[in-house]
Amino acid sequence: MEYLKSEEIVELFREKIGEQALTDNRIETKSAGLKKGTYQVIWLRVKPQLFKEAVKTLMELHYPHFAIISGIDIDKEIELIYHFSIYYGERGKEISINLSTFLSKDNLKIPTITDLIPGAQTSEREIKEMFGVTIEGLPELPNLFLPYDFPSGVHPLRRDEKGVEVKVKEKDEVKKGE
Amino acid sequence: MSNKTYSIPIGPVHPSLKEPMTFHFEIYGERIEKVNLAPGDNHRGIEFMGRQRNPIQIIYLAERICGICSASHPFAFCQAVENAMGIEVPERAQYIRAIIAELERIHSHILWAGVAAHELGFDSVLFFSWRAREEVLDLLEYLTGNRINYGIFMIGGVRRDITAEQISRIRKTLDYYKNIYAKLEDIFLNDPTIALRTKKVGILSREDALQLCAVGPTVRASGVNKDIRQDQPYAAYADLEVKAITPDVFTGEVNGDVYDRIVVRLLEVVQSIEIIEQCLDNLPAGKIVAEEKLVKLLTQIKKAQGEGIGRHEAPRGEVIHYIKLNQSELPEVWKARAPTYNNLMSWLPMLIGQQIADIPIVLASIDPCIACMDRVTILDRDSGQESILTKEELHKISVQKTRRMAR
Q: Which range of residues forms the domain containing residue B23?
């Protein structure tokens, strides 16, 4: 099998989805052990319109191992980070690729990747329930993580008015007799 | 025979289930036609809780995600924070981390072997293997102070050193496992009845394993040699030649069935013993933690900005943690993913076409700690009549099948 270097992978992404759409890229090298063996982690930020294209580019390299989607609520946007890894199966060759995209809260939509990687379904459903992101192309399925009778429109991991109220009081706030 | 299918829900909650979940089975005669999974009955909102804690406090929360992987989650979490902050972990701490993680793997795999034996109806093997597991739990208590939830991980290293005196005790325990391993292997891999119940049962093909993103022994048993300790060596594993174990090393072929998953787990016990021995032989001297003073460490965390992922090969597969620090005491986001999360979907191809009596062993084969089926309702769709199978009855069906096959 042919292995591309991290720099070449970033270059390939730049080519395939364009300089404009690849808003940020970073390669980290980590070392471990006495012999200081290294491994690399790539961080890529792409525009949501070309997100699916980026995943397809990844598929051309190697069938990626999909780990999870992390979601972050930042003011007016929600960032989704898809954690992948490629080139597993041989010693020290694996490269982690974290593909992220910012979605504006006015237009919380992202295409599904389950047609390419069926195993991503659980994670996509989690993002849908916890952040209220519409996954385009994912069939309407009942809640997986939240209870069936959970109020609609409430997404627990959101930090804005759509999130949940923290009902636990700090110790100092609790007055006598309460 | 009529063309009736029956629907059977299994689950959701039982006190000893780590991840309570409900299964809906559509049954035609004895054969499973369709499976529907419904987890989330006991979502604890741990990531939400993490929002109100600083990273040092989160280590202890992460440790409590799972009672059995209680070294794996803090291992991955600490790596994520170290990667985000750029902390170099002292080599000695990297080795101690690997030793604790491998001891955990031994206890987890032997625990699983006992559960599998129980599901098949060999309770004497359950007692034998759980007795054997006690030795490593005692050792972990001796090294860390606790049988589970070891509390040994710290951002930038570990909290307790391993002394020369302790090393001899570790070697003694490893010798104990070397001695009993032959017996374990003989029971599980050479017994004709276990082979009858597990070979060609619960098959997961290589393609399905890859597409469903399965991890750990589940994916390795299907012939994919994926193991983070091999693919992306971290901590002490960077110095060790760890090779992903696939069942063909032992049997010469890959079937992806329950038997293969037993083979992989048992061989990994031997692998763990070898890893610990190598770690002990090459244990470097030096510090065990990058920053000893917690107040100082917390000040560094408050100033840090960045994001990082930490990955660790837990007994059940890849654990991945993501953290984003933003110059604040509390992290901006913390995401944790346990291996069973990815292995869930691999149950579907495994279960379809199997018999009701095979449900317990197939469910147990990915090691989800779903050893308990609280209640099972069999619903006759046509008449609307319900009959309820308890966990004991379902277990009894499984045991009866073993007895039938043994004859």
A: 5-41+342-406
CATH of the domain at B236: 1.10.645.10
Query: How far apart (Å, rounded) are the C-alpha atoms in residues B188 and B194?
Result: 7
Number of structural domains (chain B) is 2
Cβ distance B213 to A66 less than 8 Å, yes or no, reads: yes
User: Which pair of structure tokens corresponds to residue B212?
Assistant: 């469903």
- Report the distance separating Cα B398 and Cα B123, nearest Å: 13
Of B58, B71, B55, the C-alpha closest to B235 is B71
Same domain, B117 and B243: yes
Size of chain A in residues: 178
Predicted local distance difference test score (pLDDT) of residue B370: 36
Q: Which residue of A has its CA nearest to B45?
A: A156
The residue among B219, B335, B343 with the most chain A CBs within 10 A of its CB, best to mutate, is B335
CB < 8 Å from B in window 108-127 of A: 117-123
**Single pTM value for the model:** 0.89
- Domain borders along chain A are 6-171
Q: Where are the alpha helices (DSSP H) in B288-335?
A: 294-303
Query: Looking at the structure, do residues B119 and B161 belong to the same domain, yes or no?
Result: yes
Token code pair at residue B49: 């809780």
Angle (CA) B270 B273 B279, round 5°? 145
What ipTM was estimated for this complex?
A: 0.91
Measured between alpha carbons, how far is A88 from A61 in angstroms, rounded to an integer?
12
Residue numbers of chain A with a pLDDT score lower than 70:
166-178
Residue A77: partners with Cβ closer than 8 Å, 6 or more residues away: A102, A103, A104, A105
pLDDT digits (tens, 9 = 90+) for B342-364: 888 888 888 888 888 888 788 87
CB atoms within 10 A of CB B306: 15
Q: Which residues of B touch A143 (CB under 8 A)?
A: 40
Give the CA angle between residues B355, B361, B365 to the nearest 5°.
125
Structure confidence at residue B376 (pLDDT): 34
Q: CATH says A6-171 is which class? A: alpha beta
Residues of B in contact with A171 (CB under 8 A): none
Q: Is A137 an interface residue toward B (CB < 8 Å)?
A: no
C-alpha B227/C-alpha B184 separation (Å) is 24
Phi-psi category of residue A100: left, alpha or beta, with phi > 0 → left and psi -120 to 50 → alpha: beta
User: Is the Cβ of B38 closer than 8 Å to some Cβ of chain A?
Assistant: yes
Confirm if B247 and B263 have CB atoms less than 8 A apart. yes
Q: Which residues contact B301 (CB under 8 A, 6 or more apart)?
A: B54, B55, B56, B81, B85, B155, B325, B329
The partner residues of B310 in beta bridges, in order of sequence, read B321
